[in-house]
Design brief:
The chain is mainly alpha-helical. Helix content is 66%, strand content 6%. It is elongated and about 70 Å long.
């Protein structure tokens, strides 16, 4: 064997590169039809938006889903787990795990329903309200402000209307 071990394999791979490979590596991949697919574009936009959201609320260590749960609990006191999970489209096992995390941080509490002992009512704690208030300020002043600046008021309203239509009617 002329070339031995892992280094030999790497050297062999380097030797096989074509002369124009460096230029190809530096240019972006051509997406072709992929760039025309709404689902692909929505997913790419969602990933960028989630990344920005996470950066904005990093001091609070909240995910977009956790923030959504806290917002719903604030607006809908006394609702049960099933209603909140269903509204957000979160599967029961995932929702239970998320609630465990929020409860361990003392952001919300599960209270057994007096009407149905199999059901739990969810409530924000005082700490949960305080964290939510800070998160709302960060989201409004940083995250949503950047999106508003990028899109402008008319495009923002139009995009929100289109996304709502897809979510409700598709």
């Amino acid at each position: 064997m002329a070339e031995g071990g892992k280094d030999g394999a790497k050297d062999g791979a380097k030797a096989r590169k074509e002369p124009g490979d460096a230029a190809i590596e530096d240019s972006a991949l051509q997406l072709g039809e992929l760039s025309e697919l709404l689902g692909y574009s929505l997913k790419r936009a969602q990933l960028r938006i989630f990344e920005d959201f996470l950066r904005c609320v990093a001091p609070l260590q909240l995910t977009p889903a956790q923030f959504s749960v806290l917002l719903l609990l604030d607006r809908n006191p006394g609702r049960n787990q099933t209603e909140i999970a269903s509204t957000l489209g979160i599967l029961r096992p995932n929702f239970v795990a998320m609630l465990d995390g929020l409860e361990s941080r003392d952001l919300c509490a599960r209270i057994r329903s007096t009407n149905d002992r199999r059901s739990h009512i969810l409530e924000l704690t005082d700490k949960g309200r305080a964290v939510l208030a800070r998160a709302k300020k960060l989201v409004a002043s940083k995250h949503e402000a950047r999106l508003n600046e990028l899109l402008g008021p008319a495009n923002r309203a139009a995009l929100l209307a289109m996304l709502t239509k897809i979510a409700q009617e598709f």
